[in-house]
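> run fold Large ribosomal subunit protein bL35
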Amino acid sequence: MPKMKTHKGTQKRVKVTAKGKFVVKHSGTSHILTKKKRKRKNKLKKDFVISEGTARRFRVLLPTGSGR
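> ok
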């Protein structure tokens, strides 16, 4: 059976925590910022932990970095 390959695009965008959770950046921060309130833009700056349902898909894409 061939080796499992890591999805390089996902690897560049996702960070795996010590407990195996996935941390990503919010979308919507690159352009059309004038119509967005300051409070909304400040919240978008922070990284966030993705839900468990999406994390299952990331474990397939990142077989070595998932911690399991």
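Residues 12 and 41 are 23 Å apart (CA to CA).
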